[in-house]
Amino acid sequence: MNPVFFILAVVTLAGALGAVALRNMVHCALCLAVTFIGIAALFLHQGAQFAGLVQVLVYVGAVAVLIVFAILLTRSGDARKGVAVFSRSWKTGLLTAAATLATLVAAIVNSPGLLREAPRAPELSVRQIGLDLMSQWLLPLEILGLLLTATMIGAVILAMPEKPSGEPAPGPEKGARP
Amino acid sequence: MSVPGSGILKGLVETARNFAGSYVSPERLVTVQYPEESLPPPENARNFPFLVYDEDPDKGLRCVACKICEKECPPQCIYIVAERDEKGKVLKRPRIFDIDISVCMNCQICAEVCPFDAIKMDTEFELSRYERFGALLLHKQDLAKSNEYYRRIHPTEAAEVDARLAEDRARQQAKAAAAKAAAASPAGAPAPAADKTP
Amino acid sequence: MTPLPYWLILSSILFAIGLAGCLVRRNAIMVLIGIELMLNAANLNFIAFWRYGSGAEAAHGIMFVLFAIAIAAAETAVGLALVIALYRLRRTVQVDEADALKADDKPR
Amino acid sequence: MTAASIDQVFVNAKQALLSLLPETLRPGLSMAINAAAILGTFALLFAVATLLERKGLGRIQNRYGPNRVGPFGVLQPVADGLKMLIKEDILPRQADRVVHFLAPIALVLSVLLAYAVLPFGRNMAPIDLDAGVLYFFAASAATELGVFMAGWASRSKYSLLGAMRGIAQMISYELPLVLSTLGVIMVTGSLSLVEIAERQAPPAGAILGRWFVFTPWGLAGFLLFMTAAVAEANRAPFDLPEGESEIIAGHMVEYSGFKYALFFMGEYLGMFAASGLAITLFLGGYHAPFAFLGWAPSWFWFFAKLLALLAVFIWLRGTLPRLRQDQLMNFAWKWLLPMSLVNLVAAGVWSYSAAWTLPGAGFVRWASCAGLLILPALWLSRGWRARVGPRVYRYA
What is the ipTM of this complex? Predict the structure, then answer.
């Protein structure tokens, strides 16, 4: 096993564990960022340079910051004592996850066909990715553009404060409860 | 309609002119290189009090140890002990006159309440000391400064004070002269009336 | 070079951690974090299979990852908007407290 | 010594140093030398920049600026550095220790990583990455997290507010920043910064270099990029996150001593990195402006341009008043973003009209591109003054 792979895997998994298990949600978000960086480094290790850089740009630069904003906007950042962090049925959840993991690992271990050498390192230039995106993958790209536009509008509408016409309902600032 | 961004360009030109101009014409520079040169304090500047004397630093102090300033001082930084002669009779001059200017808050009340124009506000500001305690506790001999010094730092105010003091002195002399004249001739003389408005 | 099964096991563990986080935590944002982890595990698989597969010259694996990243970003944006809307409506983001089918008038 | 050997003096020195070492260590050591060179050069430049900034601001305000420490104050950065180092490192009691400690490191590290792809001279790019521009933006993406960590971990309302302002601003201005570079990428057809710089070399026989800033879309792109870069570096007039008069120092309020110095350094290094990218993309990289000035070494031109852009940063700081938060956001989303999209169209028109051969085509090309940019700019600016409004001063 390659030591670089091992280190990156440990960092990634430690970050992932922290991201789901820590009490303070801001710590969770920061651990998530560590995981994203670890996965990007794994992509780079695999020779997928473009994907790794996009991973950092999108996940660390945008998604992690978005999550942090959401945590602060919903005031989930200050972990109060006595408020349960885990749900009542956490045993079932853990069991499900463990079962899934066991199934996947069993499937992987029992597939001898997977044990093959990697072909020579691919020489994939950014130019080729761009050309592919503009020829072979053009339709998915256009659909993706449409999806992102729709997402942007949808997210803005969802998060916009509703102004009910009629009776003056409590707005977000006034608060429904003290 | 003005072109968008023209205001930014105007501002940039202005600052560029300042930048270049400060190298070409040194008179644009507004800063004074302080320890080497310093600006004279403005005439109405004031910070800590001092005692005024005429002629002699010890005997000529105008202070009569009446302790009005000591009582009025809000942070109570003035300490006065009057001089006594051998028999214990209080004399009209201070034996101890201390001001702790590390406590003083520069309010000028002492100077305002003094009926003898004996305590005035100084403009000396380079008062840094290395010791933490005591170095800023000024004694009588540190506080005593000549009337000439006072005239130099506050010319207008000092002229007023001098005029007032001269008037008082003249009035007293006239009164004394009148008393003498009255003692000489019991009928009295209306002569001092002319002296009342100098 | 690390054999392929190691990559797959790594991504399986990542997927399981994400799933556990998704099922175990009460906070809706934490559920989203779990989903992100699972998506990243899938991306890791795409890249591993692309690298060890026969068609490494074609950029198919990369393309899958790029599209998955874009869609995951969209999913996060909408998900977090939903969470914020939920918080505005109910003053809570705990998923087990948001159990009414209809926004009732009395605040919880 | 010929001009070419002076040009390559650093490259040759590194090769000579590497040839002394065993073969197996060379790749790692080559990177270490690059990293050390970047760190040394830009730390020195940071020190010089703080001095130049204070001197320049002083002169703009008709003052002397620092002139006490050493002749003409040249040792002032040393004094400042010593002061920062020996200051007490204060940690607020409520603060999150680990995150508070990691924040400046994350910030500086992510800024420093971005330097790896900048070509500082001919053959002097630390890594000639195929996706250099993408790498640059990816590396500097983590600065936002650093700012957030600093603001949140301090547990102070000022730092949290400052951090949230800062992140909102950085996200908003990252879009025009990236979009304004796309024109260059479209025309050169490459994301590699080395190749982009090479494309701007003066063609044989020509006097003027083929800098992209000499084209209408390049000029507009350069201005857009610089505006966004000033905001991205949190410099005046976009220094709301650390607006001294309102929220003291924003996310840096609770920092002191060396950690504060790291934040300060991160800000300046970010400025240098953005300037370096602007130089490479628009100002001809390490090429001399005129062919007859080509005898000067390429790294000289890069750093001369960097200092010139630094002067622009200082000049702007000395001139413009700080924007208000709503003005800042409106400017990013309603002016810069549409303009950078329009600029992309203009770059496309320019690139497709390159084949025109009719007489007068050059003029038509210029005019159409410029018109394509100026008209939307005027249209977007209409009523801007009314919207931003003359400042209404309310006295307490």
Answer: 0.77
Nearest to D108 by CA among D157, D77, D150, D67: D150
Domain count, chain D: 1
Distance CA D249, CA D234 (A): 11
Quote the minimal CA–CA distance from B42 to chain D in Å: 22
The answer to whether the beta carbons of residues D141 and D171 sit under 8 Å apart is: no
Task: Compare CB distances from C20 to A43, A55, A97 and report the shortest one's residue.
Answer: A97
Given CB atoms, is B8 within the 8 Å cutoff of chain D? yes
Cis peptide before C3 (omega within 30 of 0): no
H runs (alpha helix) in chain D? 3-7, 9-19, 26-60, 76-86, 97-113, 132-139, 143-153, 157-188, 193-199, 216-232, 244-247, 257-281, 298-319, 325-331, 337-352, 361-381, 384-388
> Residue D111 falls within a domain, yes or no?
yes
Say if A34 falls within a structural domain: yes
Taking a C-beta distance cutoff of 8 angstroms, is the pair B107, B74 a contact?
yes
Q: What is the domain extent for residue A136?
A: 124-160
Which amino acid is residue B19, in one-letter code? F
How many folded domains does chain A comprise? 2
- Touching B: which chains, 3+ CB pairs < 8 A? D
B30 reaches D (C-beta below 8 A): yes
Task: Identify how many contiguous H helices and E strands chain C contains and give both numbers.
Answer: 3, 0
| Residue of chain A whose alpha carbon sits nearest to that of D138 | A57
The first and second tokens of residue B49, run together, are 């009090």
pLDDT band at A128 (very low <50, low <70, confident <90, very high): confident
For residue A118, is pLDDT > 80? no
Q: What is the pLDDT of residues B15-28, one digit of tens each?
A: 999 888 888 888 88
Which residues of A touch chain D, with CB atoms under 8 Å apart?
Answer: 26-27, 30, 33, 37, 49-50, 53-54, 56-57, 60-62, 64-65, 68-69, 72, 77, 125-127
